[in-house]
Amino acid sequence: MSAPRVWRADLHDAETVAELLVEFRDHIGRDWPSDNAFHFGVERVLERGEAEFLLAAPGGGAQAAAVCQLRFGFNLWRAGSECVLEDLYVRPTARRGGLGAALVQAALDRARERGCRWIELDTYEDNAPAIALYERFGFRFGRSGGKRDVVLARSLDDDA
């Protein structure tokens, strides 16, 4: 079996990226955003350069079966650029074939290429396979001043 192939998605890959993200949405038990919103959003992100998507396929010319999103920005507390790795998804039929690991490695490489000093991600606390994968690449649960960092979020859609 040949090594997975990973590439940075461009506008020609937008439909594939959106389809994989819709599968991810369904996999985690959500029904929103709509399929159309994903397709529109991926094209917008790619056109505006707001983020990057990486795609991965098993070797041998196979179609993409995995995706992740990378967002970049400047972090004042780190005095440098950072990368947020989001939405890493591998189709169930392609799991255990090295695609997730290939995407994580490519994300680390891309973050370094962009001069990032930090990369972070979040995942569900009960997603043991994902946590094991990320820990294999040196990701650790955050600590600041001896206290565990937690991710909190809220919607702003209800503020109108």
Automatic annotation (TrEMBL):
* Keywords linked to the UniProt accession: Acyltransferase, Ribonucleoprotein, Ribosomal protein, Transferase
Name the InterPro entries on file. Answer: Acyl_CoA_acyltransferase, Bact_Acetyltransf, GNAT_dom
* PROSITE patterns, A to Z: GNAT
One Gene Ontology molecular-function label:
acyltransferase activity, transferring groups other than amino-acyl groups
Q: A single GO CC term, please? A: ribosome
Which Pfam family, just one, is annotated for this protein? Acetyltransf_1
Q: Does the keyword Acyltransferase apply?
A: yes
Q: What region holds the N-acetyltransferase domain?
A: 4-157
* Protein name, UniProt field: Ribosomal protein S18 acetylase RimI-like enzyme
Native source species? Conexibacter arvalis
